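@channel anyone free to eyeball this complex?
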Amino acid sequence: NAGVTQTPKFQVLKTGQSMTLQCAQDMNHEYMSWYRQDPGMGLRLIHYSVGAGITDQGEVPNGYNVSRSTTEDFPLRLLSAAPSQTSVYFCASSPVLVWEEQYFGPGTRLTVT
Amino acid sequence: EDKVVQSPLSLVVHEGDTVTLNCSYEVTNFRSLLWYKQEKKAPTFLFMLTSSGIEKKSGRLSSILDKKELSSILNITATQTGDSAIYLCAVESNFGNEKLTFGTGTRLTIIP
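replying in thread with the prediction:
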């Protein structure tokens, strides 16, 4: 079992560029989410999904888009990168509302210059 | 808006000491509180506390939920260098939305 995988591990973007952070899980989990982690801020929820075809906004959704066409994949798109989006991004998955079975991916460190 | 506050923000102790980390919350319709340990990479699950399970223990780690005080503590006894990590607290509210609200975390450093 690979669990939750994220690519890339590191990325540097210039302001205004767009990119997609990939997230995949092989545990057949219905719930997937994206968080960002900034120093002194803890984890903040960007977007989440309770199943294929269903997505919803979290605490800090502006500047990000998501889609969930399959159970396995939950990509996060940065439409026009800004320095304020410099952060570490974590993807997570779990059965819906079974938080003790939530697993996080290894993270993507993104720098926007 | 749900709010989770952890204290202290950072803590440095010597190996063998006992530490207590705090988490307080303000949420609509509390459902559960979770503790995670984050070493160099992704957070890993430690405990989940609910109204029906207010105390959990695993080895040297234990956690208690105080629903009256809207808070929880995480205790680590006989600390080891491997306990050095960021400890995150998260709360779920039973308000129809499926998400967790995280605190800022406590960075614990154990000195040999």
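from a first look: The radius of gyration of chain A is 13 Å.
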